[in-house]
């Protein structure tokens, strides 16, 4: 059944681009939405053991895909956020031709992300990370205004550096182990007689993934790309695209491929802490809503790296849980930003004010996302941050635990500042006639807000269904 | 490493530096093709004929052909603009050849740690077996990357038409 995650979007892409535009143009968006929703439902409803069963498809094609509970969490996030990005795209991308290009590229991105999550081979994973990246470059540049082109250009250049590092690392690991599949490479790396070459390869691959994930000091491309991209693309990038190609790959490789290494854990802790601090401090100084959310994203990814750096089951479970939560609440904040941008035509927070009474649903969902991002109980973000802080404390990393707690306060400060500037206070005369955003945007915001609250309130269920089985990856 | 390999490596680096520092895009594309051609020879000399064939056909052939066709659609720079661009490139990248030389000298003093037990030699497998049976997922991935590139060009070029 697993090949369906790659072959179904590919088949949809090919069918929707047959030279019968009159027939394919209208159902294209619906088909992509259906596929992403089906993926999210399948990830929740179908147990992992079922996906490995033969379906008859194997007679025609075997892609060597594997899945576990970590992949399942990612497949769910990818399905949900892609569906939301499509809903946002329907409202914010006006011309049908642009919408068609957007749907095609989202389907390609879906193939790339699913492949990255399901493959257990270093080179194949690299190929599918590149599919996600190439689709993302074009999606960022889609509007062709100077800012979008600059954002896409920075993304391309830094991604090229990441590519060189990753492909170099794959070559070195192939040289050392004679194979690129996870099991063989892992077995060879766990032997102690390999000299420094595997460590060099490991370091290069991890640096490449830091660039893809936007961790400090490799984050230069991220604020420009997120803020200049069309609203729907910002949702996709911030929610899952960079997380699947950078952060998921980092989690997968550090847990399943690279040998347990205290120095790698220390690097992850340090890079994570620096990302948390720099991202939050930079977010404090921003006046553009999307740029502030981009820096916030860097900060939240830092938490994930810190959880991963603990090296313990608890830390990794916290990292994966925060990865999922971040996909939901950061997508929600970007949907809110899209709603505001759609109505006002700007994301400059200094020009806004008092929108809460005019856009009540956007305002309420934005408050939920803000509180969850800052780690306020009982919302989902609180639990994942708590697990990460507990893991840091138990691991003896008291300073890092302190940074994690303190910077949550800073997160609350800059996000409350955003709330005050955008939704509270007096409405400037130019925005007096503003009304709530379109259905697609409010529906997306509502669904994501419900998930944020539900995951927090129903933690025991989430814990047993998703979090505890993640321990199995170690 | 023979003297010929050293000469080839110097040519490779010189062609790569020229690709970055040449003011005219067309010459830059030709220098890139030359870089790939020299790399192809090195790959053949290092007993990697399959990699060499791909490097020659795709990197030295197809990609420069696409680049040159695209450059052919653009307007030629005036002499004055070209001079400005040449000076700008020199100002920005004057240190590049220097770094290449310094890194080259430094690398001759670095011992690359290759003291690990070599992996078992790969069985003699045909290209067909590699592409269609062993690495068919990567082949599928590369086809999807090409599709992404094609859709990307379609999206961006359509915008240009609208703009004009």
Keywords summarizing the entry:
heterodimer; A: 474 residues; mainly alpha; B: 164 residues; Four Helix Bundle (Hemerythrin (Met), subunit A); 2 domains; 0% strand; flat
Name the helix and strand elements of chain A from N-terminus to C-terminus, one letter apiece: HHHHHHHHHHHHHHHHHHH
Inertia-based shape of chain B = flat
Query: In terms of per-residue confidence, which ranges of chain B show pLDDT below 50 for 5 or more consecutive residues?
Result: none
Q: Which structural category fits the helices and strands of chain A?
A: mainly alpha
Radius of gyration of chain B: 20 Å
Helix content of chain B: over 70%
CATH architectural arrangement of the largest domain in chain B = Up-down Bundle
Sheet with most strands of chain A: none
Number of helices of chain A: 19
Q: What is the approximate shape of chain A?
A: globular
TL;DR?
The complex is a heterodimer of chains A (474) and B (164). Chain A is mainly alpha-helical and 474 residues long.
Give the topology.
The complex is a heterodimer of chains A (474) and B (164).
Chain A: H1 4-16, H2 21-45, H3 48-51, H4 69-92, H5 96-118, H6 122-141, H7 146-177, H8 182-189, H9 197-213, H10 221-228, H11 231-257, H12 262-284, H13 289-309, H14 313-344, H15 360-374, H16 380-394, H17 398-423, H18 439-457, H19 459-470
Helix pairs in contact in A: 1-2, 1-5, 2-4, 2-5, 4-5, 4-11, 4-14, 4-18, 4-19, 5-6, 5-11, 6-7, 6-11, 7-8, 7-9, 7-10, 9-11, 10-11, 10-13, 11-13, 11-14, 12-13, 12-17, 13-14, 13-16, 13-17, 14-15, 14-16, 14-18, 15-17, 15-18, 16-17, 16-18
Chain B: H1 3-21, H2 25-45, H3 49-72, H4 79-93, H5 96-108, H6 127-134, H7 136-163
Helix pairs in contact in B: 1-2, 2-3, 6-7
Describe the structure.
Chain A is mainly alpha-helical. Chain A has a domain at 265-474. Helices cover 77% and strands 0% of the residues of chain A. Chain A has helices at 4-16, 21-45, 48-51, 69-92, 96-118, 122-141, 146-177, 182-189, 197-213, 221-228, 231-257, 262-284, 289-309, 313-344, 360-374, 380-394, 398-423, 439-457, 459-470. With 164 residues, chain B is mostly helical. Chain B folds into two domains: 1-111, NADH-ubiquinone/plastoquinone oxidoreductase chain 6, subunit NuoJ (Four Helix Bundle (Hemerythrin (Met), subunit A)); 124-164. Chain B contains seven helices and no strands. The mean pLDDT of chain B is 83.
């Amino acid at each position: 059944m697993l090949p369906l995650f790659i072959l179904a979007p590919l088949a949809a892409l090919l069918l929707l681009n047959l030279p019968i535009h009159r027939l394919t143009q209208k159902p294209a968006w619906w088909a992509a939405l259906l596929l992403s929703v089906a993926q999210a439902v399948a990830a929740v409803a179908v147990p992992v053991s079922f996906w490995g069963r033969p379906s008859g498809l194997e007679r025609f094609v075997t892609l060597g895909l594997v899945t576990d509970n970590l992949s399942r969490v990612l497949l769910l996030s990818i399905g949900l956020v892609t569906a939301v990005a499509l809903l946002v795209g329907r409202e914010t991308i006006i011309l049908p031709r642009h919408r068609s290009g957007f749907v095609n590229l989202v389907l390609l991105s879906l193939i790339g992300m699913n492949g990255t999550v399901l493959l257990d081979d270093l080179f194949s994973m690299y190929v599918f990370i590149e599919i996600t990246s190439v689709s993302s470059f074009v999606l960022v540049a889609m509007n062709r205004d100077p800012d979008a082109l600059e954002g896409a250009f920075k993304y391309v250049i830094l991604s090229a550096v990441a590519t060189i590092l990753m492909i170099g690392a794959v070559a070195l690991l192939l040289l050392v182990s004679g194979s690129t599949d996870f099991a063989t490479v892992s077995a060879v790396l766990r032997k102690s007689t390999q000299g420094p070459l595997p460590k060099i390869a490991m370091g290069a691959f991890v640096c490449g993934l830091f660039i893809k994930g936007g961790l400090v000091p490799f984050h230069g491309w991220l604020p420009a790309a997120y803020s200049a991209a069309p609203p729907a693309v910002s949702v996709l990038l911030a929610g899952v695209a960079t997380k699947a190609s950078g952060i998921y790959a980092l989690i997968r490789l550090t847990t399943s491929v690279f040998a347990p290494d205290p120095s790698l854990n220390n690097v992850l802790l340090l890079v994570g802490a620096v990302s948390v601090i720099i991202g939050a401090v930079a977010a404090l100084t921003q006046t553009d809503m999307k740029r502030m959310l981009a820096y916030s994203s860097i900060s939240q990814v830092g938490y994930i790296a810190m959880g991963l750096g603990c090296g313990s089951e608890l830390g990794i479970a916290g990292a994966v849980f925060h990865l999922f939560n971040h996909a939901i609440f950061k997508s929600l904040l970007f949907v809110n930003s899209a709603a505001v941008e759609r109505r006002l035509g700007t994301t400059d927070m200094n020009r806004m004010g008092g929108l809460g009474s005019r856009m009540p649903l956007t305002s309420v969902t934005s408050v939920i996302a803000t509180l969850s991002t800052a780690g306020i109980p009982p919302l989902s973000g609180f639990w994942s941050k708590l697990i990460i802080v507990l893991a840091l404390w138990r691991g003896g990393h008291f300073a890092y635990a302190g940074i994690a707690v303190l910077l949550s306060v800073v997160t609350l400060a800059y996000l409350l500042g955003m709330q005050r500037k955008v939704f509270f206070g007096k409405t400037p005369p130019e925005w007096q006639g503003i009304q709530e955003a379109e259905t697609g945007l409010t529906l997306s915001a509502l669904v994501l807000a419900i998930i944020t609250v539900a995951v927090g309130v129903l933690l025991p269920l989430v814990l047993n269904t998703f979090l505890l089985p993640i321990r199995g990856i170690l | 490493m023979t003297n010929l390999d050293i000469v080839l490596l110097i040519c490779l680096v010189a062609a790569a530096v020229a690709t970055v520092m040449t003011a005219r895009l067309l010459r830059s594309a030709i220098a890139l093709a030359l870089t790939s051609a020299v790399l192809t020879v090195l790959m053949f000399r290092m007993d990697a004929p399959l990699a060499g064939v791909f490097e020659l056909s795709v990197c030295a052939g197809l990609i420069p052909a696409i680049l040159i066709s695209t450059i052919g659609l653009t307007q030629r720079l005036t002499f004055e603009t070209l001079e400005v661009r040449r000076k700008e490139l020199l100002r920005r990248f004057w240190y590049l050849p220097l770094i290449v030389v310094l890194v080259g000298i430094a690398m001759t003093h670095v011992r690359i740690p290759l003291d690990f037990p070599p992996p078992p030699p790969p069985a003699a497998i045909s290209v067909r077996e590699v592409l269609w049976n062993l690495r068919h997922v990567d082949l599928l991935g590369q086809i999807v990357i090409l599709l992404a590139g094609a859709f990307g060009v379609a999206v961006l070029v359509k915008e240009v038409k609208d703009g004009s």
